[in-house]
Every structure is written in structure tokens, then in C-alpha cells.
């Protein structure tokens, strides 16, 4: 089991990453360390769920490329909802190419991710050029980047050495890299924010290799900061009610651990 940790508010002054500071502050005032993975395929559905659950979350995670009817209206409205309910938008894009290419993918194309997603993520696999390319677009907008250090899916190839090297890469760009998508906290440096997907009240798997841990396990045993919950909320009969339960579970686990 992990030892006690610093509170989110104590970590604000230790961070020199603009977005990490804002996120830690928001988590503390809103008392939420829950991210909703809003994996729905229609704009109106995404907006409706963001509006209904926005008050419970610190982060709304999107996969903009699964939307069947995408127009820029969607991202404009998402931005308004982020302001209305006070959450950050995280596009789970998992960039994975050379710096020059990801720069174009981040700022341009159909989705213009850098214009509306406060946070995005990237694989460290291609090397540090990927971070430099994304930073050339994202830093001036005060966006933040998460590196994928570990994955939740079975048989993934991201072993402990990969995670360690990902951490070392992040350390070169603390103004842009705000933390990691991982299953465990990688070290005790309070600057890094950890977000963990594969969280559900019922541990187990789906039929495509996704593996789940409970909110308590993710936060207390594995030392993460933010739990990312998708189908556990989206597919529930009453998503608002269950989102409140995940929020409470996440916050109680954190509160018992500081
Ligand atoms: P779920 O419905 O709670 O299983 O959704 C999990 C989300 O997190 C989904 O959007 C995935 O793309 C995302 N994810 C993940 O599940 N595991 C990972 O290691 C990473 C992202 Br990185």
C-alpha cells in the first residue's frame, strides 16, 4: 500500500506547469478527482452527458474521432460547458508520430484539437520529438500534455522500463508535460498528475482485454490522482446517480490517504 501523500492544494505551489496548477486548484475547490470518459458517438449525446455530469467531474475526456456527426459546433459548445460547469477537456488522442506530423495533427485537420482541448496525450514511443512538436503548438495556449506511461489493456507492451524511460523524458519538459496516463504512480515527485483509466466498481475485464480496478485500489494502492471512468457511468441506468457515487468514492479514497 502507498504511504500518505500531499494534498492537491499543497502541490499547487510545487508545480511549475500552468495547467497542472489550475487543475489541482479546481480539484480541491470542486472536491472531485473524477474524469468522465464520454465515449459516445453523437454530438448531441456528448453535449447532453457533459451538461448532466459536468458538475461532478474535474475532467471530461473525449475521443473526438469517434463522433459520427462532427462539426466545430460541438467543440464550441463543449468549451461553453467546460466554463459553465468548471471542468477541463482532455482529448485522448494518443499522438504517436514524429514531431513534425503530430504538430500538424494537433493544431490542424478537421478537429483542431489544440483550440479546445486543454489537455491531450501522447505515446513516448517515438522519442522526445513528439513532445517538442506538440509543445510548439500547445505551450502558447497554456495547454498541457500527459504521456502514456502504462496502459490498462492486457498484454500491452508498456513494461516498467518503458514507464521509467517515459518518466525520464517527461522530466525534460516540465512546463508542458503535466503528468501521465498510467496504472500506478511512477515516483513521489508531487509535480506529476496521474490519471488512471480502467476503473469501475466491479473489477474484471471486458471481452476486448480492458482490465478494471476499483476507485479505491487505483487511488490508495496504486497512488493515482484522477480516476477515469467511462462505461461504468455512461452505460448505467442512471448515469448522474452513478457519477455521484464514483465521485464520492474517488474523493473519499483520496481524503483517507492525505
Ligand atoms: P471504459 O469504458 O471505462 O473502459 O473507458 C476507458 C477509456 O479510457 C477509453 O476511452 C479508453 O480509450 C481509455 N484508455 C484506457 O481504457 N486504457 C488506457 O490505458 C488508456 C486509455 Br492510455
What does this structure look like?
The protein is an alpha/beta fold and 258 residues long. It has one domain: TIM Barrel (Alpha-Beta Barrel). The protein is built from eleven helices and ten strands. It has helices spanning 8-12, 18-30, 43-53, 72-85, 99-107, 113-116, 129-138, 160-170, 215-221, 231-234, 239-255; strands at 34-37, 59-62, 88-95, 119-123, 144-148, 177-181, 193-196, 204-205, 211-212, 226-229. Strands 1-2-3-4-5-6-7-10 form an eight-stranded parallel barrel, surrounded by seven helices. A two-stranded antiparallel sheet has the order 8-9. Residues 37, 39, 63, 92, 148, 151-153, 181, 197-198, 210, 228-232 line the site of 5-bromo-uridine-5'-monophosphate.
Instruction: Name the helicity range.
Output: 40-55%
Largest sheet entry: 8 strands, parallel, barrel
Choose one word for the global shape: globular
Question: What is the average of the pLDDT values?
Answer: 97
Helix and strand sequence: HHEHEHEHHEHEHEEEEHEHH
Q: Any guess at the CATH architecture?
A: Alpha-Beta Barrel
What is the H level of CATH, i.e. the homologous superfamily? Aldolase class I
Distance between the termini: 13 Å
Q: How many strands?
A: 10
Q: Could you tell me which ligands this complex binds, including any ions or cofactors?
A: 5-bromo-uridine-5'-monophosphate
CATH first level: Alpha Beta
* Largest sheet strand order: 1-2-3-4-5-6-7-10
Low-confidence stretches: none
Overall tally of structural domains: 1
Number of alpha- plus pi-helical segments: 11
CATH fold assignment? TIM Barrel
Indicate the radius of gyration in whole angstroms: 17 Å
Amino acid at each position: 500500500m502507498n504511504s500518505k501523500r500531499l494534498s492537491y492544494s499543497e502541490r499547487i505551489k510545487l508545480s511549475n506547469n500552468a495547467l497542472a496548477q489550475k487543475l489541482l486548484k479546481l480539484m480541491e475547490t470542486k472536491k472531485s478527482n473524477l474524469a468522465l470518459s464520454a465515449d459516445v458517438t453523437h454530438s448531441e449525446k456528448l453535449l447532453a452527458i457533459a451538461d448532466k455530469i459536468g458538475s461532478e467531474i474535474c475532467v471530461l475526456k473525449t475521443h473526438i474521432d469517434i463522433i459520427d456527426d462532427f462539426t466545430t459546433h460541438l467543440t464550441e459548445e463543449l468549451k461553453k460547458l467546460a466554463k459553465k460547469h468548471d471542468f477541463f477537456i482532455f482529448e485522448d488522442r494518443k499522438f504517436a508520430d514524429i514531431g513534425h506530423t503530430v504538430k500538424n495533427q494537433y493544431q490542424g485537420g478537421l478537429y483542431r484539437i489544440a483550440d479546445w482541448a486543454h489537455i491531450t496525450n501522447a505515446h513516448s514511443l517515438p522519442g522526445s520529438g513528439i513532445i517538442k512538436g506538440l509543445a510548439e503548438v500547445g505551450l502558447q495556449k497554456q495547454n498541457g500534455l500527459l504521456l502514456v506511461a502504462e496502459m490498462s489493456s492486457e498484454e500491452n507492451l508498456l513494461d516498467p522500463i518503458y514507464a521509467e524511460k517515459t518518466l525520464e523524458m517527461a522530466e525534460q519538459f516540465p512546463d508542458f508535460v503535466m503528468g501521465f496516463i498510467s496504472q500506478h504512480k511512477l515516483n513521489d515527485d508531487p509535480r506529476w498528475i496521474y490519471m488512471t483509466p480502467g476503473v469501475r466498481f466491479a473489477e474484471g475485464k471486458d471481452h476486448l482485454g480492458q482490465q478494471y480496478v476499483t476507485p479505491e485500489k487505483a487511488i490508495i494502492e496504486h497512488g493515482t490522482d484522477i480516476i477515469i471512468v467511462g462505461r461504468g457511468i455512461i452505460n448505467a441506468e442512471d448515469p448522474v446517480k452513478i457519477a455521484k457515487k464514483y465521485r464520492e468514492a474517488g474523493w473519499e479514497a483520496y481524503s483517507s490517504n492525505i
